[in-house]
Amino acid sequence: RRVLVLNGPNLGRLGSREPDVYGSTSYAGLVERCTELGRELGLEVEVRETNDEGEMIRWLHEAADASLPVVLNPAAFTHYSYGMRDAAAQRTAPLIEVHISNPHAREEFRHTSVVAAVASGTIAGFGIGSYELALRALAGDRPQD
Ligand code: DQA
After folding, report:
1. Predicted confidence (pLDDT) per residue in 14-46, tens digit
2. Residues in the active site (predicted)?
3. Residue whose CA is closest, atom 8 of ligand 1?
């Protein structure tokens, strides 16, 4: 089963980016952990990252058309991108919103997610482990829709 792990802006800079907030694992390390766990779970995981809202929207269309489950860390797009939200709303398979940090424990502007209502569920605050929990949820037989 193919799964897309889609990352929004600035996540390509993991490791060097505010390590006190996002941890010391690099983006390459994130890709490795997701693909390795995927292999264990019998998932073919493809990890992507973009700083471009249009590209993220096109990837969500691709997932909708191919009925691919998605683990989505929309990063800052979370808080304002209605275009991305409307693309996510077209999903034809489970879509799990993830965050490394706990946005609710941070600045006010991070308390709103415009995607949350169209996601199957949200996992936030477990560091890189948020992605692992999401992949395990997708691999399991629990309801996600
Ligand atoms: C984030 C939280 C967002 O508020 C922030 O803009 C990010 C990363 C997280 O994974 O904790 O870029 O999505």
Report:
1. 998 989 888 889 999 999 999 999 999 999 999
2. 22 (proton acceptor), 99 (proton donor)
3. 75
- Give me the CATH number covering residue 64: 3.40.50.9100
Question: Which domain does 132 fall in, by range?
Answer: 2-114+127-139
Asked if 77 contacts 53 with a C-beta cutoff of 8 angstroms, the reply is yes
Domain count, the chain: 1
Lining ligand 1 with CB less than 6 A are 10, 73, 75-76, 78, 99-101, 103, 110
User: How much is the ipTM here?
Assistant: 0.99
Q: Is residue 119 part of a domain?
A: no
> Is 55 within the bounds of a domain?
yes
pTM of the complete model: 0.96
SS3 state at 54: helix
